[in-house]
Amino acid sequence: MGVRDITDEFRRSARKSFRDLQRALNDRYCWKCPQRTVRSITGCRELDAWVRLRDALEDEVSSFISESLGEEALDRVKTRMRERKLRRELRILKINDEYLIAGRPVGLVSGDLIIIGSDIHILRGLDGVYAVTDDGRHPLHAVEGKVLDRIGSNHPLHDYIRGIGRI
Asked: pTM to 2 decimals?
């Protein structure tokens, strides 16, 4: 069996599982939902089925990689996935009263400011697939971005960027 055959078989089984899950959700939840009459417009049942199947797939693949190759291999795979998802070069994030210009977390070196969750950390070094900060070791896939610039209230672009959020 080739890669294409395996992928096609997975697609067929995923479609069947999606339909079965929609029916189960309908029988179990939709009868008491106040949006039952507009569910074809809201797509809540489809969304719920999609999220449940995606989470189940991610959990199963993560468990398999972790059990067969180890936690470090799982962190390496998640880091590579994160890099593929972050295709945009720049993002503007608001943390506290500052705007941060964040780039992709590539080419990290000691001393860089990095974003993990909603916190800014100083990168002290790299240890394999982990970013070492004053707060400990964090998997690289948890790094949201690298801070390229901080725009506080005295920065000339502050009012402009704040105005963009209102559009």
From this structure: 0.53
